[in-house]
Every structure is written in C-alpha cells, then in structure tokens.
C-alpha cells in the first residue's frame, strides 16, 4: 500500500497551490461545497473543530472558517447543537433540501432530457431597480436567461423550487410580483425558433469560456492520474482536490441552464467538462473517503460512516477511463 502522506502528482500540487495563493477566498462557498459533498453523506453534521482541521490545508485559517460558519447559520443554511464543550454544525432542513436539489444536477452522469417546454417567470407590475437587479442575479445563479427586462426563461427548471429559492434569498416581496408560466412547444409560421430563444437569453460564448477554463484546470490532474498505473495520490490531497473540483463544478453549473443538446453548438465544452468531472471524482473518491474516515469527527468524538449511496455518484454504464474526457 502506498504511503498516503507522500504522493502528490505535480498537476494536483499546482491546482492546490493556485487556490492557496489566490488573493481572496470565499470561505462560505467552500464550506457549502464541503457540507454538500462530504458532510451530507455522513449524517449532515460535523464538529466545528473537525471542519477547521479539514480546511486548514487549503489555506483557510480558523478565524475565517468560524466567521463564515456563523454567517451560514445566520442565513439558515446551518444550525448548531452543543455537545458538552464542543459544538456540532448541522444542515437545517431547508439547507438539506437545497443541497439535495443541487446534487441532482452536480452528480448526474448526463444532461437531462428536454420535454420541449420552456419555463418562464414574468414580472407583473413595476419593480424598483434594486429589486429588479436582485431578482436578475438570483435567477442568473439558477441558470435562468433573460428576455428583455421582464421575462426570465429556462428549459427545464422546477418552477416551484425556483420560487422557494427566491424566498430563501429574502425576495418574498418580489415573488408576489412574479408569474410562473409553462410554454408548450408549438409552431406558428415565422415565430422565433428555440435557437433564437437561446441566443437571445444566454451568452453561450461566455459560458463556453468558463467551461474551457474548468477543463484547463483539471485535465492535467486527470491525465497524470491516468498515466500512473496505480493512480496514486495521497489521501489528504485527494480530499482537497475533490472539494475544489466539486466547488468549481457546482459554481459553474449554477450559471448553466443545462440546455438540451439540440439547442447547443457542436462540440459544446460542457459535455467534456461533465465527463472530466465524473472520471476525476471517481478516481479521487476512495483516497478522499479514507481521509474523511480518519479526520471527520462529531463533537462526541465519533466518526460517522458514509452512506453507501456516495458510491452511486456519477455512476454510469460507461467504463472508468473511457477516454472521452
């Protein structure tokens, strides 16, 4: 068995170093990724001291982590539960629902099928400029495109979940001025096509550039692990890379409306990014789980086991390392 403390492929080392050396880190977003990817499968709770120890190797200091966790609790993502002199942080029911909804998109092995119906959210009445911008930003992070200033469009969003997310963002007053609509696919002579809708609502060139950047960061890591017959990487580095991989991919998907293939340009880089993420995640899973078995603890001192469902993430009939990424 290889020494779990010594094997760090150079491309992995570069990615971790790049993250540590960036000027500003949004620790709250990283912590959300840790809870969704690593803590949720182990009972949705973790001792604060354990979370600090897990994230310190990424260059996040204790004060930053404590401040960020306190803020997430204030925003009702997390709640606390004292155990003696220690404190566990747990996902709130609403926080867990948000993660489970996100997981259906993050760990999917392929893009969803399209029912050829557009989901629309239309503003009814006047919105103040500040409220309109807050709405635009909130729906942008759910993948909605804009058609003019009063209509937001998505090919497959769950409109109920979209409204729940707006309420969670504190936009209750704005929600009362929104109308959800489901548009059936119909042919009306010279009416705008679905492709026209896409080009009007989203900047696909910009999104493609973001996907290309993701592939550029992680393809060298995957190439090195493929080239190594043993696929060796130390357990801690595997965990840290897994968190950064899912963190970057999660934030990328938040911008992506997950358009069906029929509406995307040929050679769309989103599919390449999905396959890369799937294979790299599966290669990092076993060593990263060993790291969590050793270092993730509850306030009671216990280490909760991972649910077997974690091994179903990114599962597909295609063999590992099929070369398509």
Automatic annotation (TrEMBL):
<feature type="domain" description="Transcriptional repressor PaaX-like N-terminal">
    <location>
        <begin position="27"/>
        <end position="93"/>
    </location>
</feature>
<dbReference type="InterPro" id="IPR013225">
    <property type="entry name" value="PaaX_C"/>
</dbReference>
<dbReference type="GO" id="GO:0006351">
    <property type="term" value="P:DNA-templated transcription"/>
</dbReference>
<dbReference type="InterPro" id="IPR048846">
    <property type="entry name" value="PaaX-like_central"/>
</dbReference>
<protein>
    <submittedName>
        <fullName>Phenylacetic acid degradation operon negative regulatory protein</fullName>
    </submittedName>
</protein>
<feature type="region of interest" description="Disordered">
    <location>
        <begin position="299"/>
        <end position="325"/>
    </location>
</feature>
<dbReference type="InterPro" id="IPR036388">
    <property type="entry name" value="WH-like_DNA-bd_sf"/>
</dbReference>
<dbReference type="Pfam" id="PF08223">
    <property type="entry name" value="PaaX_C"/>
</dbReference>
<dbReference type="Pfam" id="PF07848">
    <property type="entry name" value="PaaX"/>
</dbReference>
<dbReference type="Pfam" id="PF20803">
    <property type="entry name" value="PaaX_M"/>
</dbReference>
<dbReference type="InterPro" id="IPR011965">
    <property type="entry name" value="PaaX_trns_reg"/>
</dbReference>
<feature type="domain" description="Transcriptional repressor PaaX-like C-terminal">
    <location>
        <begin position="202"/>
        <end position="293"/>
    </location>
</feature>
<feature type="compositionally biased region" description="Basic and acidic residues">
    <location>
        <begin position="310"/>
        <end position="325"/>
    </location>
</feature>
<dbReference type="InterPro" id="IPR012906">
    <property type="entry name" value="PaaX-like_N"/>
</dbReference>
<feature type="domain" description="Transcriptional repressor PaaX-like central Cas2-like">
    <location>
        <begin position="114"/>
        <end position="163"/>
    </location>
</feature>
